[in-house]
Amino acid sequence: MKYLQDLVPGCNKITDKAGMLNEIINYVQSLQRQVQGWMGLSSSYVVCLDG
């Protein structure tokens, strides 16, 4: 749990385990949305180059 706390910004301020896990889940979901956005942008760029 300490390892995850160190990876997630602001997670060290949360003391209860449920709140900490919730913050970690939100952070991972945010990272997933960012990656999906980048993948969408890169595929749009390739389509523009091909077309």
Q: Please state the CA-atom Rg, rounded to the nearest Å.
A: 17 Å
Q: Can you write the helix and strand succession as a string?
A: HH
Distance between the termini: 48 Å
Q: Note the overall shape.
A: elongated
How big a fraction of the residues is strand? Answer: under 5%
Q: Helix count, per DSSP?
A: 2
The average pLDDT score comes to: 82
How would you name the oligomeric state of the polypeptide chains in this document?
single chain
Domain count: the total is 1
Number of β-strand runs: 0
Q: Biggest sheet, open or closed, and with what strands and sense?
A: none
Proportion of residues in helical segments:
over 70%
* Helix/strand class: mainly alpha
Low-pLDDT stretches:
none
Question: What does the model show?
Answer:
This protein is mainly alpha-helical and 51 residues long. It has one domain (2-50). Helices cover 78% and strands 0% of the residues. GO terms for molecular function: DNA-binding transcription factor activity; protein dimerization activity. Keywords: Nucleus, Transcription, Transcription regulation. One of its GO terms (cellular component) is nucleus.
Topology:
Layout: H1 2-7, H2 17-50
List its traits.
51 residues; mainly alpha; 2 helices; 78% helix; 0% strand; elongated
Short characterization:
With 51 residues, the chain is an all-alpha fold. It is built from two helices and no strands.
